[in-house]
Design a protein that fits this description.
Chain lengths: 359, 68
Amino acid sequence: MKEKRGIILTGAIIGLISVLLVHLGNPKNMGFCIACFIRDIAGGIGLHSAPIVQYVRPEVIGLVLGAFLVSLVNKEFKAKGGSSPFTRFILGMVVMIGALIFLGCPLRMVLRIAGGDLNAIVGLVGFVVGIYIGILFLNKGFTLKRNYTLSSFEGYLFPLVNLLLFILLIAGFSMLHFSEEGPGSMHAPIWVSLIAGLVVGALAQRTRMCTVGGIRDMIMFKDSYLITGFLAIFLVALIGNIALGYFKLGFAEQPVAHSDGLWNFLGMVIAGWGSVLLGGCPLRQLILAGEGNTDSAVTVMGCLVGAAIAHNFGLASSTAGASPNGKIAAFICLAVVLIISVANSEAFGKEQNLEKAKN
Amino acid sequence: MERIDARGISCPQPVLMAKNAIEKSPEGIDILVDNNTAKNNVSRFLKNQGYKLEYENEGEDILIKARK
């Protein structure tokens, strides 16, 4: 229990801050949503032109910089990369498209459940199924191979890019796009969002908080460390939502959500499966990127491009439900994750073939 | 003694490697990791399996020695 104190506290603080961010202006059940926020940033820098989801979310910048600063202080910052970067880029895109079909990353899924949104329970079932499929491949020897130490400068670049983006935001750089209505227009004050991100980024770095890791470790090793944090987020956000009157139980008319069950389910199957292959959820990828892991930085770039494509090609769901293009995209994403899973699993003979080719 | 190199590998594969290794050599393993996350995850798993752990630094890497 003693070693879980940190992760429980971190989960509780994330739950609390999430509710407070909604109170201060963020969309409902969206105190944090890594997928939504990266999608908003993609819109903010003009990679897509969906008018209702454009904003440079300081929470994301704060998460990266918080993890970066803490990892420098505790000497865990280490520039590394080279573990199948382009495969990770593609997986980042796929996870993002899955999340935008569901309308939320795994972290927002927990926050949605804590707001009484039962559609997110359907998403959770899909998420667990996706994680389970990913584990089957891990057990068959799936690996994206090891990373290597790189120059520190390579590791500093991602936090630096985030810092520059924040400077553009506070300087009022006129090329940035900002929604005038819809979720993109709803946000807490810039500095509050930044500080919220910094605090959560620092805590998540210390505790390795990961939504995918919680369920994965429970299934694989009966290790309850990370899932305790997941439950703490849920409980505190639930209490906060009830206290502030945001809790509304049901399927219909939930904030920034739809009630197309099948697509909520499949969207999160994709997000869960892809995230297991990546070794962590979108939140964890941001934290790792802050610590100098440039494979995770590449993954986040994949998420950014995935978000742009999701809106440019009409793949993202709306509150009305999944889009026709999004339904086709879901199956393409499942096929892509399956191919990546098989191609990188030792049990499917790829390694033996390589060995034979060498001989 | 079974020695495993888990440097640079994403979560949760270092733990999975440790799990597979103790099935082969239940009396103990040495596992080399290069970051605190892997060190903590592998240590937590091996401790739960009833192993006693010792650590040695190898340059920037950490060798976890697990014995029954």
